[in-house]
Amino acid sequence: MKPLRVLLVDDEPLARLRLRTLLAEIAEPPTEVVGEAEHAAEALQGLRARAADLVLLDIAMPGPDGLALAAQLAAEPGAPAVVFVTAHAEHALSAFELAAADYLTKPVRRERLQAALQRVAQRRPRQEAAPADATPDAPVLVVSDRGRVLRLPLAEILYLKAELKYVTLRTATRRYVLDDALGDLEQRLGSGFLRIHRNALVARRAVRELQRRPASEPAPDEAGGEGWALRVAPTDEWLAVSRRQLAAVRQALAEGAAR
After folding, report:
1. Segment 76-118, tens digit of pLDDT
2. Which of 123, 205, 215, 223 has the alpha carbon at shortest distance from 159?
3. Environment class of residue 173 by beta-carbon count within 10 Å: exposed (0-12), middle (13-18) or buried (19+)?
4. What domains, with CATH codes, occur in the chain?
5. Where would you tag: which of 132, 198, 203, 234 has the fewest CB atoms within 10 A of its CB?
């Protein structure tokens, strides 16, 4: 994988130094810092001199702030991805309206920065391979996770499961705890997701197998005893399928086999 070319934009030298240090500690995905800037004008000049795949961008800066710079970049063809890095959480919604890849609050943790880098790296091959008239951004779900606002590509979501007062969203590598109601999420996700139980939605592309499983194994039917369960790929987790949704799940499996 080619290293992600990163431009650091922050008016505080120590903040830029910390980002450089964190990037050097992250082996995957690999990165290359192609420049630094203290304000928007310097950032634009740096991008004209050397292309970047990602801008790690502060919001509060002298002159035009980071939101204004992101809006200007978004209007240009072939613009780099933007991950905001700021001490203030109140701009998160405005940031995601500008299609930011992520929103990190200071002090930045290495794990959170790595997750943001991976999201940008995963998008890059799809964007490079897309035809010129294709939509550049894949569909996303904007969610609130423990006080953070995230943009998760629908292609990364495997399933959502309601548990007590929260909903767990599962990707191949992570779990997120959401405040949203499962019914509201179902409407936002659209036809690519299948209701398999009153407490669970599964991405149709992740449906791999349906079988009866005894109550002693994971995901028994809510009625107890032997019940139907669905295997989700690639994690091979089993989720309960209610009798009411059984026909729809069988149809989804049949449609998948016919493709």
Report:
1. 777 899 999 988 777 666 666 677 888 888 889 898 899 889 8
2. 205
3. exposed
4. 4-129 (3.40.50.2300), 159-258 (2.40.50)
5. 132
